[in-house]
Amino acid sequence: MLAARGISRRFGGVQALDGVSLDIRAGDVRCLAGENGCGKSTLIKILSGVEVPDAGEIEIGGTTRSRMNPADALRAGIQVIYQDFSLFPNLTVAENIALAPLIANRRKLVDPRRLRARAAAVVAELGVRLDLDATVEELTVADRQLTAICRALAEEARVLFMDEPTTALTQREVRALFRVVETLRERGVATVFVSHKLDEVLEISRHVTVMRNGAVVASGRVEEFDRNSLGRAMTGRDVRDQRDAPPFDETARPVLRVEGLGLDGAFEDVSFDVAPGEILGITGLLGSGRSEIAEALFGVTPAQRGRVEVGGAQVAIRGIDDAVAAGIGYVPSDRLTEGLFLEQSIADNVVAGSLDLHRSRSGLLDRARLARTIDTFFAALRIKAPSVAAPIRSLSGGNQQRVVLAKWLARAPRVLVLNSPTVGVDVGSKEEILDILRREAGTGTGVIVVSDDIPELVSVCHRVLVVRRGRIHEVIDGERVTEDSILEGLSS
Amino acid sequence: ACGSGTVGQSGPPGGDRNLAPEDMRFVNVVKLVGVGWFDRMEQGVQEFAAGTGIDATQTGADDASPEKQVKVIQDLIAQRPTAIGVVPNSPEALEATLERARDQGILVVTHEASNQENVDADVEAFDNRAYGAQIVEGLASCMGGSGQYAAFVGNLTAETHMEWVEGGLEHARANHPGMQRVVDPIESKEDESVAYERAKELLATYPDLKGFQGSAGTDVAGIARAVQEAGLTDQVCVMGTSIPSVARKYLEDGSIDKIFFWDPAQAGKAMMTIAQRLASGEPVEQGTNLGIPGYESLTVSPTNPKAFYGDAAIEVDRSNIDAYPF
Amino acid sequence: MNTGRKNAAWVNRLRGRNNEGVLALTILVVVALMTVVNPDFFTVSTLFSILRNSLVETVFALGVLIVIVSGGIDVSFPVIGIFAGYTTIVIAQSGGFDPGVLGALLIAVVIGSLLGLVNGGLIARFGLPTLIVTLGTQGIFRGVLLAYIGSRYIAELPAGIAQLSTTDLFVVQQGQVAARLHVFVVPVVLLCLAVHWLLQRTVFGRGVYALGGDAESARRAGFPVVRLQLAIYALVGLLAGIAGIMHVTLSRNANPYELAGTELDIIAAVVLGGASILGGRGSVLGTVLGVVLIAVIKNSLILMGVPGTWQRAAVGVLLVAGVSIQALGARRKAAGRRAVELEEARA
Amino acid sequence: MTMTGLDATTRRVVGVLQERRSLSRLLALALAVLIGFSVLSPGVFSSVINFQTIAFTVPEIGLLSLAIMVAMLTGGIDLSIVSIANLTALTTATLFVAAGGAEATGGHAVLLTVLFVAAGLLVALLAGLFNGFLVAVVGVTPILATLGTMQLYNGIAVAWTGGEALYGMPDAFLAIGINTVALIPISFVTFVLVAVALAVLLDRSPLGTKLRLVGANPTAARFSGIRNRRVLLTTYVVTGLLAGIAGVLIASRAASASPDYGASYLLLAIVVAVLGGTNPYGGFGTVLGVVLAAVTLEMVSSGFNIMRLSPFEYTIAQGLILVAVMVLDAVHRRRRGRAAPPPRPEDPAPSGVVKEEMREPG
Ligand SMILES: Nc1ncnc2c1ncn2[C@@H]1O[C@H](COP(=O)(O)OP(=O)(O)OP(=O)(O)O)[C@@H](O)[C@H]1O
Ligand SMILES: Nc1ncnc2c1ncn2[C@@H]1O[C@H](COP(=O)(O)OP(=O)(O)OP(=O)(O)O)[C@@H](O)[C@H]1O
Ligand SMILES: [Mg+2]
Ligand SMILES: [Mg+2]
């Protein structure tokens, strides 16, 4: 139905794809797995006409071509949920969903009522809740992802590519999506699914293709793989996956103490301590208030009530500046918007938060020290890039996230708050990032991980707070931190 | 230095070059090139060149900004012409540049800049205040010697325009006590549409307004449009500086009553002729006859011994418009 | 709680997607203030006069709106306008024929579109930054106009146009002064409606918004981005051509030195009208209000009795105040939206 | 290349590559212009006096272009620079007139000059601060804020002087604009010193990097603990000061101050800034590039004047240069072929990255 033959693509010094071949048959659900930067997205972009390959052929519906453009691909029935969504932030959800088909059908006029009706039908079919008249930029990341999914389903597709479609979704929405995939499969639509969540991969797909460094290294029926073998195929080594929360001094004075924190409409009466070296997890369903707590601690949307003590001294967090001054660092969940300067270099991104700490006595930047800092973190965090001068835009997700981490580690914060730190990060990188957190905690930093990735919480956290409806519902600690107990806390 | 009101007695600056006409090069730098007024001036310069055999040309910038004119003159300095004529956009902004030109032995003759310091001579078509008085006298006779009038200038920073307007106001105060100027001079930004808008606003604000004095060439045209549209062609007098090509249509339909100007061709010729006299060591002084209509007997300015006035103002109304084809 | 939310939504609706409401309110406040200072301000004649002063700017602003919404910027449009307007007159004169109103319009539109296509071609073909291209072409166009087509003031327009110059839609006699509404308000209103329809109801128009929202996404969604950009800049040129011939007609002469230099004012009016300089946002209504606000500010100072030497400063003060009110209003709106969002998250 | 030998701030960004390329292209252009005109008009273009002329004219436009560049680094623009320059000049001139400064000589004159220039620059600083206030605190889009203040500052200048130009500065002051040291105009020396200082500020101080980061992504800057408001305020103070220094040079060269000087500089300064490789949408730009661009355009303009070409032809040439440089760049980029296309300055950030001033509580 759609096939790639020997596709290669080079970006500057990076061989993103190196002779990749792939066959997609009607009714197949094929998973593309691989570490960050192994070329999954690039392959999808080439098959959907967004990127042009250096070499190789694309076979579609019996004809062979060396390149395509997006319109060709759309007309051939190829739909894509892009990793970065590729939505129009300034248009409404309805338009984002139903506009593209009009172009493919070469229509000239837009009838807003029909357009909205079409979008409504798609949203209903998927069984999700979306405000059709909201502009996409007002949406949460999860709703944006849903919008991107709906758009791909608006047209009858023959091949549907989903590049990490579930990163921001809740269980319930993931279920709904899987049901749709199943229906499409029955109708003969082929789906190519990319995800770093191995459980999902094993659950939804029929076939698995594993890529590494731009080449296919394993391919087969899903039954031939399990978590471990899949991880090994992707990374070339065994991926450790068990709980490892290094010990810390529980009696030490807390580095962070939060008492009675409250913000109208978001959370209420939130109190907890974090000891130096402790890794505290905060979890909850989407909309439970977990993210808002993190944002309040960093002063993005400050709390209205309650007190915060850092290192024993009370601090009033009225804005980001207060939080930074108090020694709090924050790794946001939306790293593209809030974490990174995409066009700027790795070097600039790493030091963006600590420029003032790198002054020499003259008040100018101490360039030697600055270079040392950059190189130290570039090496210590094992950021994969040709040089520190490379723009962030050219890095893979896992590496981008390491840069955001480096930015805060360079300030040596007393408390580091991370919001969904491993979203879209491959299993290998994820384990390395968690290791970085363990090491950082080892230096006496208090670490707070806000996440809904339960295995991840189990892996690193000493203690997990479960938030429901804006309140701390349960505190799970010590040996009780298991996937089951957290799931129970979330759903009970 | 020369309180006597004579320039050029000491011979040309930069040593006794005593050049033959064909070895001389004169360049006239105008406010901006391409517009009717300065095209007409260029004709004068060309006539001068043809008559004397001197290589005389005209140049300027593409808009009337002082900084561009400075640049044009500075670039000329590198070419060392014998003399430059300058019609400054902003006399004060040119002082240092003109000084540099003179330091390089270049003769400098200006026009429309009676207070310019770093010049060898300045020639004016007339005394600006007297000219302003002449315009307001015309307005007075049209308005019957009394009533409200308003005055426009191209820019509040344009010194000559301000002198015409103030000279006119003094004349009215002294001779026509019944005449009142209603507001400070209004700025048209040398833009006809602005003059039009302002005139409309003035007519709305001062229902008894009976006269307008324009200064920029397009002022009277804009004012005339406003007056005509308000149906007040016969009730309101419009006069001021302009050129026939701009004003012709309104003079013919009566919405402009009279325009005043001087012939730029003659002025350009006068500048070049003075430059030539200075270059060949002939003096210019009170009473000098340049042999150009309007410049047959120069008057020394009472305030600046290097500035000379002609008597070249021209009044044009419907009856004699056809004599001025520019 | 619920009513609070409804109120917030209602207030947001009133403000409009692009803050048009705040702008309208600002205009009302300014007009009210002026009327208090000088009761004579509030007359039909003032109204007509402000409308007339906004005609040409509005047409230019429509073009600027389209290009700004598409995420680009064009600073060459006034030069294109006067190029088209002046050249049309030169053609008529040298050809010794009277093209009539429609003929003149046609010539101007063709010239404007062609020049716009030059911009579009450079931008779309080579993927160049729009500001830089149009800065370059405005110099080229202006130079070509003045050097090779003409630099003289032309006082006599072809008869058809000359007649249109003084054609009014209607005239209201007010004491000594007659208030006239020029017939051009009709085509300008039609143009506004047409551009509104184009932007809101056609795939092309939504493509302009999509392009301004995210160019790469637009490409991925199958929009023919290159053709879209060509069309956008040609359209800006076309509108500039119309504005240029209108300007010549209204001023009853053709002066090639005019218009150049007004680009920043018009861009500012469009941005004031709620269009985002970063693209993707803006409306015809907002644009018209932006143009009108600036016209009100600039054309009422004599009526206000502001002395000549203070007029420029007064325009500055009013402009700064106007844009500040608008900015504060936009900020409130963002804050309001966040409150609603939080509540919904909890609900 | 050793990692440690690399210096963080100099090798920032692609940038690095891209900027170097645009710099070398500009340099090639400058040399071509220099050689071209020297051949076409031997003895005149390449004369000392002509280079001196160019050195006299570059500082004013160069400083104003640098001001535009600084504003563009943050993704903004400052349209009020020419008004600020004139306001500065008028302040200094007014003080000289009031103090009867024209007659001052020797040490007294020097003292007055220092004092009054400082006062002028203070006015420039305040004007810049007000721009910064509008942009950073009130949240007005820079193009709107500075369009308003451009009119406002110019209006204040007109009201203050009644439109007349002011004279009466002592020779000690005029020396700045007129005198030369070893054939090099003092104003050019001043310009070079200011440019070097600015380069140090932008490349070596924390502020420089912050400025670019705020321009690149204001939201991420806030989330990195950068105080956007303070950075923006400083930005517009710096542009104001640069404009102020330009104003001092203008006044000392023209021996006078007027509210209407330099109107044509505004668009030209924008042209020079973008020709010098500044990205109008923020994040990229170098002092060296802008200086090179200013010198190049001034040379072209001189060459055209000397060749007796009409100013209209120069306008055309200026536009052609701008477009040609950009087109060459684009073609070159394509020919490099398969390499990743450097992000177009215009490409809005990928979806999700909404370039919007970040929500700032309180
Ligand atoms: N436009 C680009 N310019 C330069 N390099 C690029 C570009 N796009 C991708 N790359 C590089 O190509 C390689 C493959 O990237 P790709 O996005 O396909 O990875 P991926 O497998 O999708 O990773 P992830 O799981 O993080 O999404 C990476 O090294 C990336 O840095
Ligand atoms: N002009 C339009 N504006 C908005 N939406 C449209 C428009 N035309 C079609 N659509 C929507 O796009 C969807 C797919 O288009 P398609 O051409 O298959 O529909 P259709 O029902 O066959 O239309 P038609 O009867 O006009 O041919 C339709 O469900 C419709 O809701
Ligand atoms: Mg990917
Ligand atoms: Mg159909």
From TrEMBL, chain A:
GO molecular function: ATP binding; ATP hydrolysis activity
Boundaries of every ABC transporter domain copy: 2-238, 250-490
A UniProt-annotated Pfam family: ABC_tran
SMART domains, alphabetized: AAA
Domain of life, per lineage: Bacteria
Keywords, sorted A to Z: ATP-binding, Cell membrane, Membrane, Nucleotide-binding, Repeat, Sugar transport, Translocase, Transport
Name of the protein: Monosaccharide ABC transporter ATP-binding protein (CUT2 family)
Automatic annotation (TrEMBL), chain C:
Record's GO cellular component terms: plasma membrane
InterPro entries: ABC_transp_permease
Topology of this chain in the membrane: Multi-pass membrane protein
Alphabetical UniProt keywords: Cell inner membrane, Cell membrane, Membrane, Transmembrane, Transmembrane helix, Transport
Pfam families the record matches: BPD_transp_2
Molecular function as annotated in GO: transmembrane transporter activity
Compartment(s): Cell membrane
Membrane-spanning intervals of the chain: 21-39, 59-89, 101-124, 130-149, 181-199, 230-250, 270-297, 309-328
Superkingdom field: Bacteria
Protein name per the record: Monosaccharide ABC transporter membrane protein (CUT2 family)
Organism expressing this protein natively: Pseudonocardia kunmingensis
Source species taxonomy: Bacteria, Bacillati, Actinomycetota, Actinomycetes, Pseudonocardiales
From TrEMBL, chain D:
Keyword Chloroplast set for record: no
Subcellular localization(s) per the UniProt record: Cell membrane
Topology versus the membrane: Multi-pass membrane protein
Pfam family, one: BPD_transp_2
InterPro entries tied to this protein: ABC_transp_permease
Region of interest (Disordered), residue spans: 336-362
GO CC, one annotated term: plasma membrane
GO terms assigned for molecular function: transmembrane transporter activity
Keyword tags: Cell inner membrane, Cell membrane, Membrane, Transmembrane, Transmembrane helix, Transport
TM annotation in the entry: 26-45, 51-74, 81-102, 108-126, 133-153, 173-202, 231-255, 261-277, 284-306, 312-331
Keyword ATP-binding included in the entry's annotation: no
Classification via PANTHER family: ABC TRANSPORTER PERMEASE PROTEIN YPHD-RELATED, ABC TRANSPORTER PERMEASE PROTEIN YPHD-RELATED-RELATED
UniProt-recorded name of the protein: Monosaccharide ABC transporter membrane protein (CUT2 family)
Natural source organism: Pseudonocardia kunmingensis
Classification of source organism: Bacteria, Bacillati, Actinomycetota, Actinomycetes, Pseudonocardiales
